[in-house]
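Aim 2 progress. For histidine kinase, the working sequence is reproduced below.
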Amino acid sequence: MSAVSTPHTANAGRANPDWADHPAWLRYGIAIVLTLLAVWARMALAPADSGGRFITPALAVALSALYGGLGPGLLSVALGMVLVNFFMVPPYGSFAIQNMEEAFWLNTWHLLTQLVVVGAISLMQSRNRQLRAADRQIRLAQQHFLDTFEHAASGITHVDTTGRLLRANQTFCRMVGYSKDELVHLSFQDITVPEDIGPDLRMLDELLAGARSSYTLEKRYRHKDGHIVWVQLTVALVRKPTGEPDYLISVVQDLSAQKTAEDALRTSQNLMNQAQKLASIAAWQADLRTGRIAGLTKSESFLSIPANDYAIADMLTLIHPDDRPRVMALWPRAVKGQAAYEIEYRVNLDGREFWHSVKAEFERDAQGRALRALGVTQDITERKRIELEVQQLNATLEQRIRDRTRALRDAYDELESYSYAVAHDLRSPLRIINGFAQALREDNPTLDTGSQEHLGRIMGASKKMGELIDGLLKLSQYARGEVQRQNVNLSAVATRIFEELSVAEPQRAVEWEIEPDLLVQADPALIEALMQNLLNNAWKYTAAVPQARIRVFSRVVDGVREYCVADNGAGFDMARASKLFQPFQRLHQPHEFAGLGIGLATARRIVQRHCGVLRADSRPGQGATFSFTLPQG
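Predicted structure tokens for this construct:
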């Protein structure tokens, strides 16, 4: 059975319209018309005797009073008496009754009877209006009850003593997902989570037994779609006039959002507690009026503080004597708002020394006086230990770096001395070999052709060996020393080198193009050697090209400016590019192009000395492009 709504209208309950619904002119007009019609009908149907004619307007008076109320009824009485006395019998307009005593009693009796009729009708109508008004109030009150029941913010149900649902409002239906027609076939046990049925039934038994007048509990309903709905249930018992239990009224408040918030808050608190434990943080508040500090977390469990409530003076005694003056100086200033309270100090707990980092903010009254401090204390003992170890390690590391730097400098000095010694010692035997070979050739012009070729090979090998020694020394030289950065016009350097190459080989027809004003910050001597190697390399590998072309230009790649030397020479296979910048490694045969394989290795050393990068891009027979960067600093 479900609640039924009754339409709520202003005229609900009116069985008949009231005379007050009609305008006055209509009510009085009908009274006059009815009275005139009654008198006319009597005169037309039968002659009127002296007494019988007084009954003529009675029906008109009754109808006038019923339709128009008391006023029209009295008007009909008065008009009827005038007509009866003066116009129903001839001569019309004169008093029709000759006997004045008879006239007096007839008129008096007629007036009294009509007044009783009109009064009775008026009283009946008044009582009828009261009854209709009472009926409207009852219907209105019933509608208000139904509206309250149906549209209440809480779910409301009527349940019989066995638990069967008699009726439910829309709020409860939305709460559990069932329609009213579905709920009347269910009991509250059918939609309650099984674990919560027992407590509900025990309280219901106490309610039915008279041990309590109502009860409230939190329980869970299972929604029609399967999810759980937490509610607060308040149940009251309605009894019959005989005192026997009739039915139960249940008010159901949805607690799902509240439970979700409580779960989220509980999860947040657990996570916060875990975070505080992991970070060794304790929250506290200090009442500045009482001078007491109260922990907001169980700080003694992870900060080794003896108690969770103590006086500010007691806390000061725990602080290391060397740090106590700093705390005592900062705290009053922070209380007055003159400084932020943020400090690190040592505390002595259980015979051990701990480092604490403390921050606090103050709640103040309207006058700015501090009332309470809210703060956090973090155990930073481990961090301080690590900082001390790092400081000690840094000191040791700095000393080791100084020792290694000194040893490296000594090694470089020794290497430089060794290099010069090797160069000198190797050059002397080579000069002797080359000299004796030359002497043999000059002193023995009659030597056969084979011997002459042998002497030529000896002299060529010694010369090659000398060039290799010079290349090693030059490579070693470019790897040492400090880079002196200055403004260098790369375009001017390239122009001069091209002019020298053109003078050295005037038979070569090489087209060269240089981007103007390529300004860089670099070591002038090193940048000169770099461009010498790159341009000589391009000049050499374009020797077999009929229309040789070499370009010097710059470009921006990924926001970084590169300086490039490009040619249309022999090129090389990028699969073998890993050997390109290694000393004495060559990608072409000696009979194809002369050289020692030291130029590009030297160029790479110079670029690296400038903290830059040298890279190459090429294809066999399509030339090569060497690009390098020269970062500032």
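The first strand starts at residue 155 and ends at 159. This observation will guide construct design in the next reporting period.
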